[in-house]
Design goal:
There is one protein chain. By secondary structure, the chain is an alpha/beta fold. The chain has 3 helices and 10 strands; from the N terminus they run βββαβαββββββα. It has one domain. It has a 5-stranded mixed sheet. The N and C termini lie far apart (32 Å).
Length: 127
Amino acid sequence: MHQARITAHKGILVVELVPDQANGEGTSTTNKLRNLATVIHDTGRHLGVSEEALALLKMVQRGLDRIGDFAWFSSDDGKDHFAWLGGPKRLVNPTSVAAARDYEILAHRVIPNQVPDGARMAIETNF
């Protein structure tokens, strides 16, 4: 099972899929940028969000469609799921995207805002 984390730097969200080291997972085919979207199941266990990122996620506007740049939804089994358009890593300006129409902040773990160096450099160069 993969984990995901969302951190923030200079007002930009850093959304990334990370292998679950506790289960001994290393690199996998999910590192290839070929996915239309990435989904994390059971976000209460598998999604870490920093306080800084949470404030930015609350700024994301809902769109009119069932899908969007972000979707955070509950399933019939009582678990929450988070999805984002794109592959395992994405930098997102929260004011320039639209979430699914049912998007809301659901279960997650609070994590430190430790932004990877590569993401930090990309944000400072491109945003």
